[in-house]
Design brief:
20% of the residues are buried. Helix 1 (4-17) packs across helix 3 and helix 3 (40-54) runs antiparallel to helix 4. By secondary structure, the protein is mainly α. The protein has 5 helices and 4 strands; from the N terminus they run ααβαββαβα.
């Protein structure tokens, strides 16, 4: 499976969801329960926004014509969710199961 589509989806999520000017406001937008940190569930929900917007026919699969550039292998919502969860755990530097503003602003690991 090509990872191009996953990366493009993550970039799209960031751009399409909101224009955020700093890490604190980014965390605040992702932090649905307002506890000052981002759980894996909050992260996944935020990041799947792009998938859901791109899935024009709502079938839970991004077909090549729905992917950036109109090319690539189909990807299911579940495959994308798994990729997002993996990225969350890589960003969770202290392993506490949450992302802080510092972890959100860190370069991808």
């Amino acid at each position: 499976m090509r990872r191009f589509s996953c990366g493009a989806l993550l970039l799209f999520a960031t751009a399409a969801h909101a224009q955020v000017t700093d890490t604190g406001s980014y965390l605040q937008r992702m932090d649905a329960d307002g506890d000052g940190k981002v759980s894996v569930e909050e992260y996944v929900q935020w990041m799947l926004y792009a998938f859901d917007r791109m899935d024009r026919n709502g079938d839970g699969v991004l077909s090549p014509d729905e992917l950036p550039g109109g090319k690539g292998k189909p990807i299911t919502r579940e495959q994308q969710r798994q990729t997002i969860v993996e990225r969350f755990h890589k960003q969770d530097a202290n392993g506490d199961g949450f992302l802080s503003a510092k972890e959100l602003s860190a370069p991808p690991r």
